[in-house]
From TrEMBL:
Annotated HTH arsR-type domain residues: 4-99
Native source species: Nonomuraea gerenzanensis
Molecular function (Gene Ontology), one example: DNA-binding transcription factor activity
Protein name according to UniProt: Transcriptional regulator, ArsR family
Signal peptide: none
Highest taxon, organism lineage: Bacteria
Coiled-coil regions listed: none
Length: 114
């Protein structure tokens, strides 16, 4: 039961983080590769402190991670993490399977009762 609750909480955090268009834009930018926060802020036309709040939400949800970026210890590169997206896709696949089964049953019923 704890695993189901944990999975549901993780999916809730993922969906909550992705509900914001700025955070989705950051996710799209990170699909192209790791980027420093300053470059992300410039790309989304937002101040560094404002973007920092969005990055904090993305880190807390596990969607991104920040790593030291090379020679400059102050530079942090943001990258996507696969696990939350895999968990979300798994849940969506289960919902899709439910609807496919429901529609299949409805189709059988209609064909039987013609």
């Amino acid at each position: 039961m704890a695993t189901i609750d944990t999975d549901v909480n993780d999916i809730d955090a993922t969906l909550a983080a992705l509900a914001d268009p700025t955070r989705r834009k950051v996710i799209d930018l990170l699909r192209e590769g790791p980027r420093p926060a300053g470059e992300l802020a410039q790309a989304v036309q937002m101040s560094a402190p404002a973007l920092s709040r969005h990055l904090r939400v993305l880190r807390a949800s596990g969607l991104v991670r920040a790593e030291a970026g090379g020679a400059d210890a102050r530079l942090r590169l943001y990258t996507l993490r696969q696990q939350p997206f895999t968990a979300l896709q798994s849940w969506l696949d289960q919902v899709q399977a439910f609807w496919a089964e429901q529609l299949g049953s409805f189709k059988e019923h209609v064909e039987r009762t013609r």
